[in-house]
Amino acid sequence: VLYFLDERDEFVSGIMRDYDGKQFMSVSSSGLDLDTEEEKKEKEEKAAESKGLLEAMKDALGERVKEVRISSRLKDDPVCVVADEGISLEMEKYMANDPMNKGGVKAVKILEVNPDHPIFAKLQKIQNEQPEKLADYADVLYTQALLIQGLPIDDPAEYARKITDLMIQA
User: What are the CA-CA distances from residue 8 to residues 30, 90, 94, 146 (Å)?
Assistant: First the structure.
């Protein structure tokens, strides 16, 4: 395991793709595959059972994400955002801080949802009983995933308002 803590490390991993026959792989990459065959099967079953919920969340998030899917990498957090092929999340952060970039380069994001987290059962209940509220929950969870990853969010005031509204409704 290598820890790349400096923003310039992203360039090193792009140039040095492997070491001693071992390929470098970011933990925030959508291509990370550490699951056993049994875990893959279980993940596929959960995804099939939750297809409607995942599609509804994707529809609510629109173009902000390429896909919403079940995660096998999450243990404690309810959601995470990973980068699809192409620009990484770390490169997006680096480019966002470049004054010459003007914030135009963005990673293609995938929202991963932890099916074992209590919020997942809550999302399923909301989809069945109050589907009109699912968009707000999806937006809050997506924004939370961005914050966890250290990415900027579009509208902090809107995020705070939605959190407050959901707390009032709870």
Answer: 21, 9, 8, 21
